[in-house]
């Protein structure tokens, strides 16, 4: 008899009794963020800076990624940083800038919420709430956003199993909010040449086990600007419903994560390449009319 | 030239500029929990159930561990559970039971706080606040307990490096609270025969880099009742300033973590063994007069 | 100042002084296996059973994968198995069957060699020698195959860093053999829903650091038949020079790895899909004329 | 129902049907190396340099560790090194020096064998053969040493589960050689402040599952000289049957692993401390008469 305790494919049946389980909604969930639909044929690209730094920085990048084909803007106002001495984000000032993007640039906005006490405030300015990796098992926060009516972008914890990830999403659905997108963003392994190890096998696994849409973050998943394009292509090929990509108008001057941010030109070129891959797997990426 | 990117001993110098750094207080910090001092010659044992289940359960175990030589009681009222369908703790009712322990049994109490909004409530009943593994990088929570005047028991995240662990403690000290105890409780690795891999090398590493006391949780660190005694002995031998051990009056009936909880007799026997190890490394464990 | 000891992108400069380093041959190496070239525009597919079980099994699958577009046959005669009581392979009898494939079916053959004493024997029957994951740091074996004139397929150890992987290849080149192909086949992490975690970021990283061709094994990398197609597509999208895929004529009866083997029809369908991805990234997969 | 796929304590029953299983020999195996018995009451200390560098270096350290209480000398003649450009050991010349130790200094000797073709040669000079971490799953080598009549020191692979480790030992016992000692030497995890993560929980786990003696290598397990003493004490406290420690007469001049080697004085001081711990857990370490 062969044994392999490291590897238990039969365990993946655990999801069948969950609200997030594929069985509960075999046709799949489509999450609607102010008219942008994630989980359908279109592969949706979310892009923008790691952190909101200034009005100029935010709006220039917002326009650039919109023109490149992004459908949603990302940007952090409250930043979870390993050190208390690192930049912690602009806070409410950043939120207000984000709140103007939808009207002025036309893109819905996703931003992170870190504290149960801020869910209401962040909801007033953002169109989708992000739960970051470090808070994937912050259960009071999961319950709180589960009680909101906003779409939620839930990032996988850097050492969370597939099962724990789905159970974290279950906390949100269990409060009545089923507008949840799962995001693979790299796990922590022994390998140190990349910032994290982007686990693309999580995409087909999550889509098999759950009806929720799954997107990929190749920026945090690799930590290396030059590696974002090949991993983004792989993510579309493997079946992701979307990508979230860090873009900065001057990466070398970014306050955080500049080394993993694309500049505007890199982003525009990448979108053209991604469109070809999407079509090769019978998906779509709609690019703006270049005129 | 030999290379080893996996292993960067020179990196450990990062702590020298931190408030938690050994250099900031070479003689070491002693944390005082209602007169119980952690960080001195005495190796302090914290013991009690995973979760508060009932008055009978809590008080029986409190008496037993006190009589065995424990100096502080542990017990959870708010429980962070992977699944929303697992027991979430008795909440405020559990807190109130914990609040009676100090007066009636004579032991200070440590319990977990999971939400910034609960810090005040939990502080009203507990003598020390625990930040659990899943919240080690919940920065708003770290800041909030940093503003309280309670001693803090900070557990290492299951995926946290030594550096990230110390930076999490720095968030607390940076708010003015230096009564922080670090707790190694097992990290996540590829090995599946134990619940986590208890990283005892973290103890001498943390004590070299920081002035804060360091304790070990052999219960969560192994997940196996029979393995708690040998790992507890090893933790004392390696230089831990204390241990936190799960004890239940009827482990087979425990609502959570019964398989890793000692019963009362096991605990009392273990204390006698630990005393010998403590003396072999020039530390002390004071046991009550058996009469 | 931000710190991140886990992640040292500057370390990747270590390869510049190595024979395997990109700098030593900026244009890239093309490995030639009896006329099949790996490392050029064509994405080369290697396919076949985990182990040679019988003449019928081997030849039926060899014909099927050739007709599907595979250019090289894989098959194990000596099998490294975790337990001594698992099937260890047909040994020399299996080698002889493999030795007939090139003439009768027209495909070159790759098979594993595990022992320095067998290099000569295996070389007499195979067109390329495989060094398996468990032997990636078996230095006497690396030196021995380095002295042979056969092309070498070197699989990444399941817990080998990118640096260790390249240094293992360096042992082979240092003996005068530069016909080496690197194979990412999944690394060991905490995640247990898949057999290993297929690290596709290794492909662009290895290709940046080294001039050697890089292929991917989605069969061992996932351990799940249904996950092989999406991960194979992702591997082509990310820039792999080839794939090595387990195919069995009756997967449910396979002596080993049946649960991760494609059947003949699955393989043929996958090849059509892979061709589209290859073209979307400006590579080619040539399929046989269906007539 | 609670779930935890990461942690499968019931799986540990796999060993009951193995030759290495505790059930096959409940009283435990004592391995006899030229009269030195490992697996009994005595905790046996093996010490010596990483590599044999010269007669002077080897003999000075051999005398020092013997006088300090070591019962067996360690020293490498064939060294498995990550890079082909690192020192590969003195080879046969080193073996011959090792072969003189038993007669001249009175200590049996353990040294590593890396190649099936060298088993006979190494056996002619050494009293125990070591299989290193990188070769733990080199099955031809395991079979070859299984056919020898020498005691075998089998080191855990840095990525090997407890189950794989025991199955590797099973390869040796299955050839008729039951004189096998298991050695925990650190596993590879995400943590980079130490060279490896020394998994002391492996000691009670292995001793529960198997009848074979278990020793610990705190030198490779930590990679840091100052951390060897506390981890050595913890290893004795947790129940190890012995330790293997790197000692060099001039650590700062060592060709390899100098940063993790104790000097002679450190070693002698450590032995005194270890003796106290051994006694606290009802074991013994016999030190030479200081006169």
Q: Quick one: CATH class of chain A?
A: Alpha Beta
CATH superfamily of chain A: Aldolase class I
Alpha-carbon distance between the two ends of chain A: 65 Å
Tell me, rounded to a whole number, the average pLDDT of chain A. 94
Largest interface: A-C, 59 and 59 residues
Which structural class fits the helix and strand makeup of chain A? alpha/beta
Taking all Cα atoms into account, the compactness measure Rg of chain A is 18 Å
Indicate how many domains the architecture of chain A comprises: 1
Q: What fold name stands as the CATH topology of chain A? A: TIM Barrel
Based on the structure, what is the oligomeric state of the protein chains?
A: homotetramer
Report the biggest beta sheet of chain A as strand number plus sense, adding barrel if it closes. Answer: 8 strands, parallel, barrel
What string, H for helix and E for strand, traces the elements of chain A in order? EEEHEHEHEHEHEHEHHEH
The general outline of chain A is globular
**Strand order, sheet with most strands of chain A:** 3-4-5-6-7-8-9-10
Keywords:
homotetramer, 291 residues, alpha/beta, TIM Barrel, eight-stranded parallel barrel, two-stranded antiparallel ribbon, 9 helices, 33% helix, 13% strand, globular, disordered N terminus
Describe what you observe in this structure:
The structure is a homotetramer of 291-residue chains. Chain A is an alpha/beta fold and 291 residues long. Chain A has helices at 55-68, 92-104, 119-125, 139-147, 162-173, 202-209, 218-222, 228-238, 264-280, and strands at residues 31-33, 36-38, 44-48, 72-74, 109-112, 128-131, 152-155, 180-184, 214-216, 242-246. The first copy, chain A, has an eight-stranded parallel β-barrel with strand order 3-4-5-6-7-8-9-10, surrounded by seven helices. In chain A, strands 1-2 form a two-stranded antiparallel ribbon. In chain A, α2 links the parallel β4 and β5 (109-112). Chain A is globular. Chain A starts with 30 loop residues before the first strand and ends in an 11-residue tail after the last helix. At the B-C interface, loops of B face loops of C.
